[in-house]
Amino acid sequence: MVDNLFFRLEPLSKNNVVAAMRVVIRIGGSVAASPPNPELIRRYAELITDLRDKGHEIAVVVGGGKPARDFIKLAQELGLSEREQDEIAISVSRLLAQTLAMKIGGYEWKNIPTSIDEAAKTLRERSIVVMGGVKPGMTTDTVAALLASEIGAELIIKASDQEGIYTRDPRKYPDAEKLDETSFDELEKMLAENKHKAGIHQIIDPEALRILKEKRIKTIVVNGFKPENILLAINGVKIGTVIR
Ligand code: UTP
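ok -> structure tokens follow
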């Protein structure tokens, strides 16, 4: 376990309005990798460097998206076990993490942390860390929540393929309404009620939500196809759906 005392941030200079924050950004594979989007990955690399230069500490967790699902299907067709399918999906998410990390920092970034502790250490050393999955049987939402908890993050931002959280699945119901704010309790209830409706459960993994609720980590779901939304969320501008 990493001692959170190592993570004290220095205050920013008077010229900066927003205080330095420790933030976890969970970039959906559905956003950056379905299909892999070089322009978006380039913009995320710039954004992450820019945030670091502004004094923030940025931990990024990337999902596997469609490439991971394609490999899971391949593994299924080959009769590989669920654990093996997960291991393959984790490798795909790490490959995407590696690509983004290299674009941020060059070849010395090629090693992607394979555990939460290792990621916390890299963050402490470099103020930026990029990672994918860590272990079979979980999602990258949970990885992001565990990392946020370990490093004592003030904020976690989920860069999703929707504008935020809706009352119903917006891909199916045109009358679905976007929520500007919700609570962990309300969202837990919504996820339980909609358990069997495809799409809804994918907003955020209930296991991740449980961790974020327990640690009371402010969570914002935004449209990740517009990386500037991340900056707006960090700057306290009303965007996406805020969960607290
Ligand atoms: P995710 O479901 O977390 O990422 O991981 P995604 O597909 O990119 O989701 P969106 O589009 O961003 O919302 C894909 C799969 O990888 C395996 C699981 O099988 C998961 O469903 N995985 C991922 C693990 O087994 N362990 C991990 O730590 C991460």
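Residues 28-30, 63-65, 68, 86, 89-90, 93, 133-141, 143, 202 surround uridine 5'-triphosphate (CB under 6 Å).
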